[in-house]
Design goal:
Blueprint (H helix, E strand, L loop, with lengths): L2 H8 L8 H5 L2 H10 L2 E3 L5 E3 L2 H9 L9 H8 L3 H8 L8 H12 L2 H25 L4 H6 L1 H10 L10 H10 L7 H27 L8 H7 L9 H32 L1 H9 L2
Antiparallel strand pairs: 1-2
Helix pairs in contact: 1-3, 5-6, 6-14, 7-13, 8-10, 10-14, 11-12, 11-14, 12-14, 14-15
């Protein structure tokens, strides 16, 4: 086994990530998979890098927990960041996870998602036309991050002139999920949750007063709940609206950005893609 790989894996500590790791984490991931796929961290946690191991842990909810209260309590204390991340769908176990997921997925039915396709195609075409007109562009700012903000904004029927802060709130909240954060990052994330909640309270009050079409307006559907009377609590509703925006922002924006970097690093693949019908 490659000695460098063993040294790279042996020195890995999730709480002491280096600028070099952030710039290019993939050699470290490969070294971990090859030499220490189940890596014990200095703090006692384990870091998994093999797909099959991750799927096993993900599916076995009786043995492996997604609940973050124990981990996040010393990190966030009695704060809005703690409240958000321990109420969010992704950091809860069944039955709480199952109940909230069922209500959210009920609002995002296959028919509702299929109905979004036309608007998303128009959005992407419009953004691409803007890029072409500008000539010199910033991919993340001008394209990648605009897609999830607009799509989730449409899902929740957020007025267009009120969407500007959404991305900054999302970045601040997600930034506070790094393994180790500074007081400044904590303060920024906490303020983002506070401002986001304050805005959503206004948006929810408006929607209760004037409901939208529950087949297209996810917020109206979440407020109204299921036909059997099951509903999200007020806190669950607000925090999982934040979760929807954050989850969509993180995945879509990073996928587009990383995809472009991969094509730039492997230009032959770009030529192959260009030749495909």
């Amino acid at each position: 086994m490659n000695l460098d790989a063993r040294e790279l894996a042996g020195g890995f500590d999730l709480e002491k990530l280096t600028p070099e790791f952030y710039a290019n984490p993939y050699p470290t991931y490969r070294a971990l998979r090859e030499t220490e796929p189940v890596k014990r961290m200095p703090n006692g946690s384990y870091f998994l890098t093999r797909y099959d191991d991750l799927v096993t842990a993900y599916k076995n909810t009786k043995v492996f927990s997604s609940d973050k209260k124990k981990e996040f309590s010393p990190k966030y204390g009695d704060s809005l960041l703690y409240e958000h991340h321990t109420t969010s769908l992704v950091f809860n176990d069944p039955p709480a996870h199952t109940r909230v997921r069922r209500l959210i997925m009920g609002a995002l039915s296959p028919r509702a998602i299929a109905g979004m396709e036309g608007d998303i195609v128009k959005l992407v075409d419009m953004l691409l036309d803007r890029l072409a007109a500008k000539g010199k562009v910033e991919l993340i700012e001008d394209f990648a991050s605009a897609i999830p903000v607009e799509v989730i904004g449409n899902l929740l029927d957020v007025p267009h002139d009120e969407r500007e802060p959404l991305r900054d709130w999302s970045l601040a909240i997600l930034g506070a999920l790094e393994p180790v954060i500074s007081p400044e990052v904590f303060a920024r994330g906490n303020k983002a949750v506070k401002d986001f909640l304050a805005y959503l309270e206004i948006l929810v009050a408006r929607r209760r007063e004037k409901p939208g079409n529950p087949d297209r307006d996810v917020l109206t559907r979440l407020i109204q709940g299921e036909d059997n009377g099951e509903r999200l609590t007020a806190k669950e509703l607000l925090h999982n609206c934040i979760f929807l925006l954050n989850a969509g922002h993180e995945t879509t924006t990073n996928l587009i950005g990383n995809g472009l970097v991969a094509l730039l690093d492997h230009p032959a693949e770009k030529k192959t893609a260009d030749r495909k019908p």
